[in-house]
Amino acid sequence: MATGATQFSDLGDFLAIPRLTSLRLAPDGGWLAATVQALGPEPKKFTTSIWRVDVRPAGTPDAAAPVRLTRSAQGESDPWFLPDGSLLFLSKRREAEAAQGIDGDAEAKSALWLLPAAGGEASRLAAPPGGVDGLAVAAAARSFLLGVPAFAGTDGADEDAARRKARADTGVTAILHEDGLVRFWDHDLGPDQRRLLAGVVSDPVGAAGTGSADTGPSDGGMRDLTPDPGRALDDQAFCASPDGTVAVTGWWVADAQRDQRAEVVAIDVATASRRVVFGAAGSDFREPRVSPDGRLLVAIRTEHDTMRRPGDVTLVIAALDAGARGQEGEPRDLLPGFDRRPLTTAWAPDSRSLYFTADDAGRTPVYRVDIQSGEVTKITTDDAAYDNLCPAPDGSFVYALRSSITEPPAPVRIDASNPGADPARLLSPAGQVQVPGHVREVWTTAGDGARVRGWLVLPAAQSPAPLLVWVHGGPVMSWSAWSWRWNPWLMAARGYAVLLPDPALSTGYGQEFIARGHCAWGDKPFTDVMALTDMVVGLPEIDATRTAAMGGSFGGYMANWIAGHTDRFAAIVSHAGLWALDQMFGTTDSPYFWRRIFGHPQTEPERYAANSPHLSADRIVTPILIIHGDKDYRVPVGEALRMYADLASRGKNAKFLYFAAENHWILKPGDIRVWYETVFAFLAEHVLGAPWQRPDLL
User: Fold this and answer.
1) Residue range 422-449, pLDDT digits in tens
2) How far is residue 216 from each of residues 100, 101, 108, 145, measured CA to CA in Å?
3) What is the CA radius of gyration of the chain?
4) Is the Cβ–Cβ distance between 202 and 212 less than 8 Å?
5) pTM over 0.85
6) How many CB atoms within 10 Å of residue 255?
7) Which long-range contacts (CB under 8 A, 24 or more apart) does 100-108 make?
8) Could you tell me the domains of the chain?
9) What number of other Cβ atoms are within 10 A of residue 216's Cβ?
10) How far, in Å, CA of 686 to CA of 688, rounded?
């Protein structure tokens, strides 16, 4: 690496940085299973492995260095512990299949694997024909739950395998939809349906991995708890009660107009009988968590947005036992009056309190709420974002992943008894990075008097620096954490200052701040971005004569809107941006969601006319780089195709970078490289005055 360079100076170095993605605490609290994403044996893809991370802070004399536990080329994910410390995980690894006589030419599917507590080789426990797409384990039993795709009408692995073979042999790829959703984010829903299966690891597992391993594709004798779910379980989170007798899962329900809402149901594992715990018209319930004592259930409740107001988000709690009486007999709001939106939850070991995270003014701190009193305590107060909360068995600490705008996720230990104390850092398998600059918090006052904030990333050397305004997606989210996908330090390494604004609709500022932009995306969200831009370009570190704007998803929408409503920027980059709202809201994977906010375009066209960027195409004078992936089903590629055609037919300066095999995000290492190379070249041409240089691989 050249003198003064960092890992952000070269895209190859950036892509090679390991990325810590999740944590799971062992039952005895002695170590953490961490998943780490890195470039695989082939540089054209990322792969994930599982590592052992010591819970003793870095600098402690006896703190052990992280140890890699899994090494297959296909990678491993979703680690869960059995009570004895054995580790279950999911993998598409093929090494063991040849030895077991399994067809090596068949498409690799995720299967359930087990790594013994004492070490040794992993053994495969179950390999359903459709693979496994989710795992949950009972905390106090040797039982587990699997999310398993299976064809409607099939009973068991043999019938499902026969159906798959029949379709493959005849070349059938068609999917018949009769209810519910058709696609989700980047994949088709169907032709199979997701089911929930319950299983038990019946035999103790020794160091050689002598558990109840299977000998071929099977369901391992597991019990099908949802034999005919339709589309109810698609992409729903699930969990198990500590004793393994109850499965709890999200459950989609559709009305006559195909409007979707999510309930939370409890399923008796012995009888497969199902009952609704959380469910109400006009609300979604998600991310259920059973308390360690098995008595209580908590979930995140999101009210549906309407054309009048944005829905609120809170935590609700109820008794898991249908016959329970007393205070928790009926669901109740656990956070009345708390004006932040909970994101993730984790029970304290005594079941008397709950930890959760929520965005708060550009951070995502950890909170604790007392179950009885409702008292909320902010546990972390630093400029960071926390996720993957893992409370210690004795209640003394909470382990978590901590990140910030300047630091990628790393494992830390939080003192649960000392709110506000700095977290203790653990030794990380991902190492550390050195960012090429520093970050400053900026605030200004919008035209309606609202206070608006953001982060300003400043490069290490150049001053005054050209400015890139980078609008976040969502739209209901915040620039509060590290992002590998939308990384401002790659721009700072090339001399740009980067403004990361949180305009109206952003989380972390209360419900009223979100409401300022509700149903009117081209109003306050736009003027808030411009107000922050006006303030920042007045700083001595910024060159006000060289500015650009960009964004992805909602940020792409805002980039498109900016292009048609101001000529102040020298260049605009729009990734996965919304262009024609009436078109997009009819072709997206979740049209019902957008109809709640904007109404139907044929009977209620007013909001479409007021907020659709395509109606301002004639006014656009700024050069635009349009970027889109063909597998993007949330903002379908038709938005980019129409935008490029609309601009080209008007003689506008536009380029279109198209990814045939990518989705809403750009995820493959090679495609990430050319994405950034193209953005760098486009901005250099129009902001820095450099000649256009087409990336070599394009």
Assistant:
1) 999 999 999 889 999 999 999 999 999 9
2) 7, 8, 13, 19
3) 25
4) yes
5) yes
6) 10
7) 100/124, 100/215, 100/216, 101/215, 101/216, 102/216, 102/217, 108/74
8) 437-688 (3.40.50.1820)
9) 13
10) 6
